[in-house]
Design brief:
The complex is a heterodimer of chains A (534) and B (274). By secondary structure, chain A is an alpha/beta fold. Chain A contains 20 helices and 20 strands. In chain A, helix 7 packs parallel to helix 8 and helix 14 packs parallel to helix 16. The chains are: A alpha/beta (534), B mainly alpha (274).
């Protein structure tokens, strides 16, 4: 029986730009449907249209029928009867989707108090049950905590508990695990699936991450530039994609996320010549004191790390958020200095040397956030020329900038435009061009593709690999995403809480991890074949 | 959205009127604002060609108000200029260096901030001499902590961004990064703050002149006109109305301009437009 039926849905801006075009689909009671597409394809707009949460200035037409009732054109007030009650939503970023000054239990129980007329005590009791049901330990104490006192995974579980509080018939989850580490993602997906199976709620799961939908949905909708271009049973679509767009999305999934079987890679690049040596490097940060006259608490972000990086190799640093991999990278490139230990980069002692100018010529960095790493007030040409001017590199800067723009395959008129006119992938290319400007020998790439769509990730990784050969670079590649690291790196270290827990040739480390932490990381990767991680 | 544009339009309009009035008054006023005419004392609106009437000495009120706008703009420029020239580098240094430099700079600025601006002005005037100059230097100094705080707060978040880290990897120093990368990106916040301070400075000058320690004769000032009018408030209340309106109108103009600019320069709206 049909629960939700979306017919000829159009969404457009006030200036008439179409964002969602002629979208039609049905969700039956208890069905789990995935909606996949790249960023900007309009998938979130569809979710918001169903919930009636579209921003002002966007106009919709078509029919959205939930349980026999047409929601399209209903007043906001009329829709409040449904929101959080018969339909609910799980958002991507659990920190901003929760009220920071409201206790978690109260928030989880809020839909119940609004729709079920429960007393405060009854609601609190129910909230504890709900938190326990999504696998949160010590639910009584966690219910009394504030959102910032919970981990990212706990917050997202609490969001699931809140979404399911009133026993909705439809749950919409918009990128529910994209902000989470891989091991946490696996746990949250498991909780989401088991809670859905325990209730009879239907699910619309929106994501750009194909393996995430593989393990949880039965039906699949593929959306490209506001139109549904492909649909069918999840297994069928992934096993034999027919539509060229779907095929492109599926092809972009790294081998490791396909079947989990780690294929053997070609010989490891890099000579025996060591370019970066780090010995017993530590870096401690002090946190804010909780109480006056207590010792300042500290956190060892990097704790006694040794490493040798060989000239010409791609060296991977893997770990979850907070493992210290970015701090380590910033130490290696001289942005911060270690508290103890020694670092030597191509003969430059980073601890003893005061003037790090020679290092600036030698080593450059590409950052994670393609939005934040480019000054929005400068033109692309100026951005790329900045290192040349700063490091007083002679020659024709304009010509050099053109060369670099060419090398990263950007259109040549890019130099006169501003960063906001480019997509995330293109912005990352600009950042790469800037990093390559002073002809560095070492390129540190800190999560360079994590903010990008999977298909764009593939292209960007290929570009990096090509440039590494072309510019004869040693690359340090930092990522939480094992499948990406596996694809591009020769040797890796795995970090946990500031320490190196495992190291070796990438292929061997991932194929037969010796440490339980690494095993857990490898087994947590969601797979396209739908085998659900344990 | 339309309302926000209206703010900007009206604010810009009023500020332009004030600026044009001040410029025109250098070259032309209906009457010599200082001309005393015993026979034309306390004339009503429109009598003998005096559009807004005359005061107790028979001086033309409209001419005085026109010339008064010169003082209003001068004090705004002087006070805000001092606040900006000192405040922005201080805030920038605090944000760029962090640590004990930041602590010392910001605590000193807290101490200055604790002084009421008008009190500071009275102190300085008592120490130097009455007049718009010293009074506005004091007001400017009193506003330094405001500008410094806003600069520091806005700059701190920009200093955390990756393009600043990138600039460091290719060898840029903190000063260059602040001027080239941070300042342009916090300019919108500062411009809004500056327009509001401009309005506050005009109010402060009016208050000080009302107290008799601001503009000294023969320099025309709306605040002093109010003070003079006070004596005759029973006889001729409109004498207090015109300079009062001029002050309110100008301050409203700068505040609307500030509000309008805040919305127009809001980067979030900028993103939505593109």
């Amino acid at each position: 029986m049909t629960l939700l039926s979306v017919e000829n849905l159009f969404v457009s801006t006030s200036s008439g730009l179409p964002l969602v075009q002629d979208v039609t689909f049905d969700i039956a009671r208890g069905d789990r449907v995935g909606l996949i597409g790249e960023s900007g394809s309009g998938k979130t707009l569809i979710a918001l249209s169903i919930m009636g949460l579209l921003a002002d200035g966007l106009s919709t037409s078509g029919r959205i029928v939930l349980d026999g009732e047409d929601l399209c054109g209903k007043s906001d007030r009329a829709l409040t009867v449904h929101r959080g009650n018969s339909m609910s939503m799980i958002f991507q970023e659990p920190m901003t989707a929760m009220n920071a000054v409201m206790r978690v239990g109260r928030q989880v129980a809020e839909p119940l108090r609004i729709h079920r007329d429960l007393s405060a005590q009854e609601a609190d009791l129910k909230a504890t049950e709900l938190l326990a049901a999504v696998g949160i330990d010590e639910p009584e104490s966690r219910a009394r905590a504030y959102p910032h006192e919970l981990s990212g995974g706990q917050r997202q579980r609490a969001m699931i508990a809140m979404a399911l509080a009133c026993g909705p018939s439809l749950v919409i989850a918009d990128e529910p695990t994209t902000a989470l580490d891989v091991t946490v993602q696996a746990q949250v997906l498991k909780v989401l699936r088991s809670r859905l199976l325990a209730s009879d709620a239907a699910l619309l799961l929106i994501t750009h991450d194909l393996p995430v939908v593989a393990g949880i949905t039965e039906e699949l909708l593929v959306i490209d530039r506001g139109r549904i271009v492909d649909r069918g049973p999840t297994r069928g679509v992934f096993d034999e994609p027919h539509h060229p767009y779907t095929k492109r999305l599926v092809d972009a999934v790294p081998p490791m996320s396909r079947s989990g079987v780690v294929p053997r890679k070609q010989a490891v690049a890099g000579s025996e010549d060591v370019i970066i040596t780090a010995r017993d490097v530590s870096r401690t940060y002090s946190l804010r004191r909780r109480r006056f006259r207590q010792p300042t608490p500290t956190i060892r972000a990097v704790d006694g790390v040794d490493l040798d990086i060989r000239r010409g190799e791609t060296f991977g640093i893997v770990g979850e958020s907070g493992s210290g991999k970015t701090t380590l990278a910033r130490l290696l490139i001289g942005l911060n200095r270690p508290d103890s230990g020694s670092i030597e980069v191509d003969g430059i002692d980073l601890v003893a040397t005061r003037d790090l100018r020679p290092l600036r010529h030698l080593a450059q960095m590409v950052f994670q956030d393609p939005m934040g790493s480019l000054d929005p007030r400068l033109r692309v040409g100026e951005i790329i020329a900045e290192p040349l001017r700063s490091l007083k590199i002679g020659g024709d800067h304009r010509a050099r900038v053109r060369e670099l723009v060419d090398a990263v395959s950007l259109p040549s008129d890019s130099v006169d435009r501003y960063p906001h006119e480019f997509s995330g992938g293109q912005r990352q290319r600009i950042a790469i061009a800037r990093a390559l400007a002073p002809e560095p020998r070492i390129l540190v790439a800190d999560e360079p593709v994590s903010a990008l769509d999977m298909s764009v990730q593939t292209v960007t990784l290929d570009l990096l690999a090509r440039l590494k050969d072309e510019f004869d670079l040693t690359m340090i590649f930092i990522s939480h995403d094992l499948s990406v690291v596996h694809r591009i790196c020769d040797r890796v270290i795995v970090m946990e809480s500031g320490r190196v827990v495992e190291r070796g040739v990438a292929d061997e480390v991932f194929r037969s991890p010796t440490q339980s932490y690494t095993r857990q990381l490898v087994s947590s990767i969601p797979r396209l074949d739908g085998t659900f991680p344990d | 959205m339309r309302w926000r544009r209206l703010n900007l339009a009206i604010g810009t309009g009023i500020v332009m009127v004030v600026i044009v009035t001040a410029l025109v008054s250098y070259a032309w006023t209906p009457f010599d604002p200082q001309r005393i005419s015993a026979g034309e004392r306390l004339l009503g609106v429109g009598v003998n060609g005096h559009v807004l009437g005359t005061d107790q000495f028979g001086r033309d009120v409209l001419s005085q108000i026109m010339v008064g706008s010169q003082t209003a703009l001068f004090v705004g420029l002087l006070a805000v200029g001092i606040a900006v020239v000192i405040g922005i580098p201080i805030g920038g240094i605090a944000a760029a260096r962090r640590g004990w430099t930041e602590d010392i700079v910001m605590r000193i600025s807290d101490v200055v901030y604790a002084f009421p601006p008008v009190l500071l002005a009275i102190l300085l005037v008592a120490a130097v001499s009455p007049g718009v100059g010293p009074a506005m230097v004091a007001i400017g100094i009193a506003y330094v902590p405001i500008v410094a705080r806003v600069t520091r707060a806005a700059a701190l978040s920009v200093f955390e961004l990756d393009y600043v880290a990138a600039a460091r990897t290719y060898g840029r120093g903190r000063t260059y990064i602040f001027v080239r990368h941070v300042l342009p990106n916090i300019a919108s916040v500062l411009i809004v703050q500056i327009t509001v301070l401009f309005a506050l400075a005009i109010l402060a000058e009016a208050a000080l002149s009302f107290l008799g320690i601001g503009a000294q004769p023969p320099r025309p000032s709306w605040g002093r006109s109010l003070r003079d009018a006070q004596t005759f408030i029973q006889l001729s209340p409109r004498l207090a109305v015109w300079p009062g309106l001029a002050i309110a109108f100008t301050v409203l103009g700068f505040n609307l301009l500030g509000d309008g600019l805040r919305d127009a320069l809001d980067p979030r709206l900028e993103v939505r437009r593109t």
